[in-house]
């Protein structure tokens, strides 16, 4: 009886950043499998010309659910909730997050959000609107059932969860550093998550406002997006992408943080190359992300000067991103690059994310985008930066910190071969999509002209290979838990503070005092007297 | 559509149940916070700093929530839609509310209320620093009085606003003007309600000596901060939603692109 009570309190009423992080990992891995299943249905439909699914609405629903699940229930929870919760208190050497109980609330709200999303797929034909839920397709006239309402509430709940978690992260990283942990000494992951959290706090409410307007249009006779009442669907597009663009940076900035750590540790270096310029680059990417939303809207009929502006600012974002990629390469230069699985994933990230960024530059040009908007070129671009950017970074971080979280190790040889097959799989899936987009295949279609069969078939075979790689990964994780090869020597430098205590952190909260030092040597306000040492 | 389906009889029950569950969760959450702070004394200055800044970040997220509705307002008023409206804002046929009666009264009510809540903050701070019991009591009574005035003015605001809603010539269904107007002012009213509840809870806590000697008054500080936020949103609303359509500021219809 007491055991049950203890179990309930530990897993439902947790205030422990490690347990909550573990729950986020399990939740996000489960969701990732669900999202992968949805993507396989899409690729099965598109493998051959003609229709496989009788119902077009079902296909649209699968496409919508795939996007929403992967973004809101795989990438964000794993990066921010999983890695963030586990590592921030360990890296900053603090006992726990600032609002430990609210941390738990964020997780359980996300569970509610997932239930609402699953609910939306079950009722009234589901929401076949695309993850962007544009009206009038998502309005009451064309989706008259309850599914879109479930979807709206799911995103509202998820939004609240994200905003609360972000407030938690911002306060923790900004205010809970004690003693010698100056702000510029925070780890790259803390910094990236801090900027990510700021983006979430500012951008998420705008989505909430747009969704509320959509809800009211559907049920309360308002006409925000209905021309009958002098509304405009383009208003929703503006509001959605004002949120949507920071959202995609929210997806990738934590990945940048993870890769910084993996590359630094995997190159046996004491310091990241140019850490402070990298921190500034992250801040500028975050800031610039707010003023480029129009590049998702080049074909709605915006005036040419606005399109010119959005194009230009989007190009500018490439500069700080380039600073980061070059810094990572420079970190690897002259170091002993370890033959660990995490470095394979990190190397894959560097190459493939850069490729994805380059196709992004192509799309940033307003004139080129008129041809490529809503084609598979866009799908290829964002899958390169997400499926191969964010997801590779998640794999890299997972392989790097798995022994820290669980105390056991995954078989490195199998992990490297799993990387190879996954690499082949995702590239086979998404590279042909560039050609499909260039030749005019639109997005979100259930069928296509017979001439596009070849590349579609190739892409579908690639998705099967990715699926098999994913199964292999699950096997590797399962085997590691079964075989219990326990961690003995972490084999990372002393600069990686999360590994202190020989890679075995305390079970619940961490030490109350910062073991590096609670105060500066010199208590005067003259910062130059502080021994900067290794920042 | 949901309200016309076969489950429509259960809707009020389900909504009531879920609202009660939410209410219970919310009340117990903040009760826990009161117990931890006032009764167990677990709120060090460090924790208080975190809570104050965390609340400010929350208010920042609320600011951006209103930002999206202001966006809709301006998109219709001077943005793309204004072309279809022929540059007329409010649209032809909609009579804008005369801004110098009820809306101005509401402005005065809220600003005064804000001033009173700010001074109650001062009184509570003195109350919590005061070692002498009698002086502490005087400060407590002062705080109670000032905060009560603030709450009464806020409640008056809600009443006056409800009257304006009742007598207004246009509704939320009256095109994009009506829906933007009511969305903005309606959500503002909801935030006023929430802020008032927060202030009322703080009033009772002052009464029960929760903020007396050496106890933290972070609850009141956050409540007053929220109240100022609500006040500032109303100021923006007054100028941009009431005064502007009545063309008093510019004397003419604002230019369109």
From TrEMBL, chain A:
Cited function: Component of the cytochrome c oxidase, the last enzyme in the mitochondrial electron transport chain which drives oxidative phosphorylation. The respiratory chain contains 3 multisubunit complexes succinate dehydrogenase (complex II, CII), ubiquinol-cytochrome c oxidoreductase (cytochrome b-c1 complex, complex III, CIII) and cytochrome c oxidase (complex IV, CIV), that cooperate to transfer electrons derived from NADH and succinate to molecular oxygen, creating an electrochemical gradient over the inner membrane that drives transmembrane transport and the ATP synthase.
What are the required cofactors?
heme
Q: Classify the protein's membrane topology as the record does.
A: Multi-pass membrane protein
**Keywords for this protein:** Copper, Electron transport, Heme, Iron, Membrane, Metal-binding, Mitochondrion, Mitochondrion inner membrane, Respiratory chain, Transmembrane, Transmembrane helix, Transport
| Sequence ranges assigned to domain Cytochrome oxidase subunit I profile in this UniProt record | 1-518
Question: Where does it live in the cell?
Answer: Membrane; Mitochondrion inner membrane
Q: Which domain of life is it from?
A: Eukaryota
Catalyzed reactions per annotation: 4 Fe(II)-[cytochrome c] + O2 + 8 H(+)(in) = 4 Fe(III)-[cytochrome c] + 2 H2O + 4 H(+)(out)
Any matching Pfam family: COX1
Pathway(s) served: Energy metabolism; oxidative phosphorylation
Organism per entry? Ruditapes philippinarum (Japanese carpet shell)
Q: EC annotation?
A: 7.1.1.9
Question: Does this UniProt record's set of keywords contain Iron?
Answer: yes
Q: What is its main location?
A: membrane
Q: What is this protein called?
A: Cytochrome c oxidase subunit 1
From TrEMBL, chain B:
Lineage top rank: taxon = Eukaryota
Q: Which UniProt keywords apply?
A: Membrane, Mitochondrion, Translocase, Transmembrane, Transmembrane helix
Localization per Swiss-Prot or TrEMBL: Membrane
Similarity field: Belongs to the cytochrome c oxidase subunit 3 family.
| Example of a GO MF term | cytochrome-c oxidase activity
Q: What protein is this chain from?
A: Cytochrome c oxidase subunit 3
Tell me, in one coarse class, where this protein mainly resides.
membrane
So where does this one cross the membrane?
Answer: 12-31, 57-78, 98-117, 138-159, 192-213, 225-244
Q: Name one GO cellular component term.
A: mitochondrion
Q: Give the membrane topology, semicolon-separated if more than one.
A: Multi-pass membrane protein
According to its UniProt entry, the function of this protein is described as:
Component of the cytochrome c oxidase, the last enzyme in the mitochondrial electron transport chain which drives oxidative phosphorylation. The respiratory chain contains 3 multisubunit complexes succinate dehydrogenase (complex II, CII), ubiquinol-cytochrome c oxidoreductase (cytochrome b-c1 complex, complex III, CIII) and cytochrome c oxidase (complex IV, CIV), that cooperate to transfer electrons derived from NADH and succinate to molecular oxygen, creating an electrochemical gradient over the inner membrane that drives transmembrane transport and the ATP synthase.
PROSITE patterns in the record = COX3
**Pfam families the UniProt entry points to:** COX3
């Amino acid at each position: 009886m007491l055991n049950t009570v203890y179990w309930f309190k530990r897993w439902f009423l947790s205030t422990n950043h490690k347990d909550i992080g573990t729950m986020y990992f399990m939740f996000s891995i489960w969701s990732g499998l669900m999202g992968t299943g949805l993507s396989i249905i899409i690729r099965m439909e598109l493998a051959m010309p003609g229709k496989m699914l009788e119902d077009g609405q079902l296909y649209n629903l699968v496409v919508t659910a795939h996007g929403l699940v992967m973004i809101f229930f795989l990438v964000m929870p794993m990066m921010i909730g999983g890695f963030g919760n586990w590592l921030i208190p360990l890296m900053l050497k603090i006992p726990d997050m600032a609002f430990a109980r609210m941390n738990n609330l964020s997780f359980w709200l996300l569970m509610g959000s997932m239930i609402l999303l699953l609910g939306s797929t079950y009722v009234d034909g589901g929401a076949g609107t695309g993850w962007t839920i544009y009206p009038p397709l998502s309005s009451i006239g064309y989706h008259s059932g309850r599914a879109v309402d479930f979807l709206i509430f799911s995103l509202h709940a998820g939004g609240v969860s994200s905003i609360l978690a972000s407030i938690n992260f911002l306060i923790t990283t900004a205010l809970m550093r004690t003693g010698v942990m100056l702000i510029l000494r925070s780890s790259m992951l803390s910094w990236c998550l801090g900027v990510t959290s700021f983006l979430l706090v500012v951008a998420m409410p705008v989505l909430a406002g747009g969704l509320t307007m959509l809800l009211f249009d559907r049920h309360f006779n308002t006409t925000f997006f209905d021309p009958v009442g002098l509304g405009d669907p383009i208003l929703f597009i503006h509001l959605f992408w004002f949120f949507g663009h920071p959202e995609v940076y929210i997806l990738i900035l934590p990945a940048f943080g993870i890769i910084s750590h993996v590359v630094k540790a995997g190159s046996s270096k004491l310091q990241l190359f140019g850490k402070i310029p990298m921190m500034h680059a992250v801040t500028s990417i975050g800031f610039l992300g707010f003023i480029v939303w129009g590049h998702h809207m080049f074909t709605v009929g915006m005036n040419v000067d606005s399109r010119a502006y959005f194009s230009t600012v989007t190009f500018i974002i490439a500069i700080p991103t380039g600073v980061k990629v070059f810094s990572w390469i420079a970190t690897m230069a002259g170091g002993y690059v370890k033959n660990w699985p995490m470095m394979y994933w990190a190397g894959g990230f560097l190459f493939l994310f850069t490729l994805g960024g380059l196709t992004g530059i192509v799309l940033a040009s307003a004139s080129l985008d008129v041809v490529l908007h809503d084609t598979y070129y866009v799908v290829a671009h964002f899958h390169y930066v997400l499926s191969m950017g964010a997801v590779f970074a998640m794999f890299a971080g997972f392989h790097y910190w798995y022994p820290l979280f669980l105390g056991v190790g995954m078989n490195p040889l199998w992990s490297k071969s799993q990387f190879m097959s996954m690499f082949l799989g995702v590239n086979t899936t998404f590279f042909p999509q560039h050609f499909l987009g260039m030749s005019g295949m639109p997005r979100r279609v259930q069928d296509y002209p017979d001439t596009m069969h070849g590349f579609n078939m190739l892409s579908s075979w690639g998705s099967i290979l990715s699926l098999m790689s994913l199964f292999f990964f699950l096997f590797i994780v399962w085997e590691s838990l079964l075989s219990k090869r326990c961690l003995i020597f972490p084999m990372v430098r002393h600069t990686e503070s999360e590994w202190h205590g020989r890679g075995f952190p305390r079970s619940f909260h961490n030490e109350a005092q910062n073991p590096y030092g609670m105060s500066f040597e010199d208590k005067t306000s003259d910062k130059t007297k502080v021994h900067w040492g290794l920042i | 559509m949901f309200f016309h389906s076969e489950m429509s009889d259960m809707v009020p029950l389900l909504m009531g149940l879920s609202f009660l569950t939410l209410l219970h969760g919310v009340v117990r959450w903040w009760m826990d916070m009161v117990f931890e702070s006032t009764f167990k004394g677990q709120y060090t200055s460090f924790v208080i700093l975190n809570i104050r800044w965390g609340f400010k970040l929350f208010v920042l997220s609320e600011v951006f929530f209103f930002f999206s509705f202001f966006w809709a307002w301006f998109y219709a008023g001077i943005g793309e839609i204004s072309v279809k409206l022929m540059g007329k804002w409010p649209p032809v046929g909609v009579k804008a509310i005369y801004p110098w009666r009820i809306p101005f009264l509401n402005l005065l009510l809220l600003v005064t209320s804000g001033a009173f809540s700010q001074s109650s903050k001062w009184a509570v701070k003195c109350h919590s620093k005061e070692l002498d019991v009698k002086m502490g009591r005087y400060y407590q009574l002062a705080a109670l009085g000032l905060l009560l005035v603030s709450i009464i003015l806020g409640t008056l605001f809600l009443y006056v606003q409800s009257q304006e809603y009742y007598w207004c010539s246009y509704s939320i269904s009256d095109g994009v003007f009506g829906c933007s107007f009511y969305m903005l002012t309606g959500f503002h009213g909801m935030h006023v309600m929430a802020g008032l509840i927060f202030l009322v809870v703080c009033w009772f806590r002052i009464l029960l000596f929760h903020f007396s000697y050496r106890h933290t008054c972070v609850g009141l500080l956050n409540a007053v901060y929220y109240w100022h936020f609500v006040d500032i949103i109303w100021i923006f609303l007054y100028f941009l939603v009431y005064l502007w359509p009545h063309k008093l500021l510019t004397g003419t219809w604002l230019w369109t692109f």
